[in-house]
Design brief:
mainly alpha; elongated; 2 helices
Amino acid sequence: EKCYREEKRMRYVSDIIDAVKARQTEIEKSLAQGYASNYDSYQRLVGEYAGLSTTIDIINNLLKEEEEKEL
């Protein structure tokens, strides 16, 4: 039971990470193709990308802390 819940939780975490990375890729493509029609749009996309990067860092740090506690 506990192992199943852990697997399910890790699957959710993996899904979240995949979704965040997919959005980052979309933003990268948008910026590379010049879809930011003005500086405000550019800033918004860059800010969103930075926020998503921070999100990934936070998730990775939490996973690392949890892993270290288990050792």
